[in-house]
Design goal:
Rossmann fold, 173 residues, EC 2.7.4.3, 18% strand, two-stranded antiparallel sheet, alpha/beta
Length: 173
């Protein structure tokens, strides 16, 4: 059965603006917003704790199992800083948000990131790690990079994704 509403993956390094964009996009399109971190917290979908990064380790299989039925129905915006754990069949578009390193450093510092966790996330952005992961995990034509530095970028990205969603629904219904 074909989904009547598209599934969107918002991905990128922590601090690039996925959650802000995802919540606003859901509010304006009626799609369901799912933050993987919150989903994992609510369902305790963890497989241990990473002492080095001071955070729980996601149980990826349980996350996928938890979301699968919802994804088949369609109309879901998924927000997560990784993307290779999700089945390719789930998404109609994959959006990788990108932020200038200096801004990202400040945003992460403001969140309390320090030391190795801060450095590794900024390096992840510099080396386009998430973008490369997305290009390896999904068909090239559905992967898009968008800048996420300013409130104007947020507005522009939101507008583009609303238009894309409306067009997708016209084309598939």
């Amino acid at each position: 059965m074909m989904a009547k509403r598209p599934n969107i993956l918002l991905t990128g390094t922590p601090g690039v603006g996925k959650t802000t964009l995802g919540k606003e996009l859901a509010a304006q399109t009626g799609l369901t917003y799912v933050n993987i971190g919150e989903l994992a917290n609510e369902g305790n979908l963890y497989d241990g704790y990473d002492e080095e990064y001071q955070c729980p380790v996601l149980d990826e299989d349980r996350v996928v199992d938890e979301l699968d039925a919802k994804m088949v129905e369609g109309g879901v915006i998924v927000d997560y800083h990784g993307c290779d754990l999700f089945p390719e069949r789930w998404f109609h578009i994959v959006v990788v948000l990108r932020t200038d390193n200096t801004q990202l450093y400040t945003r992460l510092e403001d969140r309390g990131y320090t030391g190795k966790k801060l450095q590794d996330n900024v390096q992840c952005e510099i080396f386009q790690t998430i973008y490369e992961e997305a290009m390896e995990s999904y068909p090239e034509e559905i992967v898009h990079q968008l800048p996420s530095n300013t409130p104007e970028d947020l507005e522009k990205n939101l507008e583009q994704l609303i238009q894309w969603t409306e067009q997708w629904m016209k084309d598939h219904n």
